[in-house]
Amino acid sequence: MIESTGDGRTWVLSGPTSGYAIGLTDADELLHLHWGPRIAVEDAEALAAQAPPPYRPFESPLDGHEEYPVEGGPRFVRPALSLRTPGVRGTEWSFAAAETDGDELRLRFTDALHALGLTLHYRMRDDADVVERWVTVAHEGHGPELEILRADAAVWTLPRRDSWRLGQLHGRWAAESRLVRAELTYGEKIIGSRRGHTGHQHLPWVALDADGESTEERGEVYGCALGWSGSWRIAVQHLPDGQVQITGGAGHDDSGLLRLAPGDSYTSPVFAGLWSAGGFGGASRAWHAWQLARVIPDAAAERPVLYNSWEATGFDISEERQRALARRAAAMGVELFVVDDAWFGARTSDRAGLGDWTPNPERFPRGLAPLADEVHALGMGFGIWVEPEMVNPDSDLYRAHPDWVQHHPGRTRTEYRNQLVLNLARPDVREHLWRQLDQLLGSAPIDYVKWDFNRCFTDPGWPGEEYPQRLWVEHVHALYGLLDRLRAAHPGVVFESCSGGGGRIDLGILSRTDQVWTSDNTDPLDRLAIQHGFSQLHPARVMAAWVTDSPQTQLNGRRSSLRFRFVSAMAGVLGIGGDLTRWSEEELTEARGWVELYRRIRPLVQHGELHRLRAPGGGLSAVQFLRGEETVVLAWLQAQHYGEPPPPLRLRGLDPAAVYECLESGAVHRGAVLAHQGLHTGLTGDLDAAVIRLRRRSS
């Protein structure tokens, strides 16, 4: 809901529990007024009428209060907008118009000197407390090109508090999404990626709570998440007067964005914000519900249990071996069979074949269709792995078009994993990939594509291009356009975003893919911390998690039971990636039981409310999913000390007056007792795990 005052210079956006307010001064300065619990228009008017901060030498009255600070004038904070033209740098804005279109508010400003237009977009839907913000910058004159160095999507202003605690997700390859919280000190805290993709090192999300007092279920939490799959930056500024502002958008400081010719415009990605009074758990559930309703394609559909052949075969692929794995997977109850790397070109190792997306004639002499048909006959969908944005120097594509990769003339072409990055900003490259992938998806009954990206940008050059910096942005737009085009042409195909694990997970890619590969680390214990951090922002419905062989020879050599591996992976979209031809009959039978159990609890896991009962930290950890009359608890015990039984789990979201029956044991529990005294898991020893299902009894 959008409301404005009678003079049309103050606006209030309202969601179910929260509100957002902004207002114009007489000098056309757009000031932030409120972000927090719902308020009335009259409250916003009272805030707008308050006296400005007192004059202080060497300080600006706008800093910390302006809704979208730009470069130029009496401002000393980090600018959200920075551009460069011959002779004049910075902007000076005049308010032009305000308009509403359904749940979207657009505030338009102009800079007469540059003939530049700036539109601030706001959207807050009636069913969500998420505020979606983005900007459009347009060259509306006839003069020279304007270079946009930065055009951040939004600046978020927090209310004054004594102190703030900052939460973020950091990590590295195979150790992504690690949650850390620390006091926000004065100055700037900057996170981001200079790698051309979202990155394993930081997810584009921050959460702040006042005075470090919020808990999982109580306290105010402010969160911000950026929807961009390329290089990005979020800056959290704790200003000298105690005010806190958060700015974020595409690009890193040195990259530049693009040049605008007369008539051109640039629209930033969305930078979404959320206020919650329900603690970190309440904020997470609000983020999850919004993504399932507004971001993720076909989110109401349940994601199937998949099997992926990579850890069984590596590069040693044969059609017959894939058939053998498929038969065992089908007998286990798997619903989607995926052929990973090495089905194409001259791909016998990671040194060759990338870029040649046609089946290897020796391994698949009749193409992929016969294998896909047999997989379908076994009752499973059929999927493949691709990495379209990359190319091996040893490939037909590179030999034909060595100029199609990002590179600088006269400089060494850096190779990671023996591969180079294609310049998707080039129209000929985009069109070639479209033709290849469209033909591939039409050549066999393919239901699923695992889209990988195993390479950061290192040589972002574009010989012959006047402004090569634009490839940073246009590569991402080309990726989005290619995915959109393929989805439209092949509506039955679903896509998973993968980037060496969790290297490209953000709201932008999630608006075009059905799930994401959370991490290359499939160790079930390591995964608990990764999944705990991932759940701060993203729902279990998109979090792919695999059961692989034990010991985990690719990473740490840890041994764990099939029970522990399955219960760990059942907290997301269940997948299996071990070598099933080496599993014993007893293991296959046990695994079939776990798959059957997951399929029963899948509606709760993928579409229920998530409650993090205990964070992973060496002892007992657990999550609870709640939907309708049912709830399921997944619990893990890392280690137990002598004489210290695991504590009971205090469940959440239950009706205290209701009675709940455990579907495993038949035991009956009172809701109030489960919430206050807790539920005993019965876990003992090291690396133990349990699934506990409860159903509310009808009165």
TrEMBL record:
EC number(s) reported in the record: 3.2.1.22
Residue ranges of coiled coil: none
Gene3D superfamilies: Aldolase class I (3.20.20.70), alpha-galactosidase from lactobacil brevis (2.70.98.60), Golgi alpha-mannosidase II (2.60.40.1180)
Domain Glycosyl hydrolase family 36 C-terminal per the UniProt entry, residue ranges: 627-694
Protein known as: Alpha-galactosidase
Keywords, ordered alphabetically: Glycosidase, Hydrolase
Segments forming domain Glycosyl hydrolase family 36 N-terminal: 29-260
Family: Belongs to the glycosyl hydrolase.
Annotated catalysed reactions: Hydrolysis of terminal, non-reducing alpha-D-galactose residues in alpha-D-galactosides, including galactose oligosaccharides, galactomannans and galactolipids
